[in-house]
Amino acid sequence: MGRSEPFVLEPSEARPNSQGGQGFTTAFKLLGRDTAGAFSLLEWALEPWQEGPGLHQHDFDEAFYVLSGQVAFQVKGERHVLGPRQLAWMPRNTPHAFSNAGPEPASGLTVSTPGGLEDVFAALRAGEAPPDRFRVEHLGPPFRAAGAPESPSAS
Question: Which residues form the Cupin type-2 domain (predicted)?
Fold first, then answer.
């Protein structure tokens, strides 16, 4: 697999055919095929108090870098609230989940290695199993951040 030619993306642009997951806003900025399979780069946004994916683990590494807002991370059995310029590292097979931990929108970047997270999201959107090289195991439901209203629309 080769690398892509150099390119520049504007803030509202994403790589072609690279929608992210369900339930929150995502845009892939780099695909595995851009980096010869080394990594993928995903930009994401969560609405106030919005839940992310449920507790899960997988056999690829992820680094979550918070750009704005407050994001609650469950890492194994511990919970942490991260703000701008803080990072959460999830080595492969680490149980984790996240959600917006406040009344303001939150956003961030996720680097996943090896590249190909976009293939996982495409399979899940299609109701299919992720590619064999990206095993994902769902361990529990999404969690709500401490202080979250019963219904996100109540905020």
Answer: 44-111
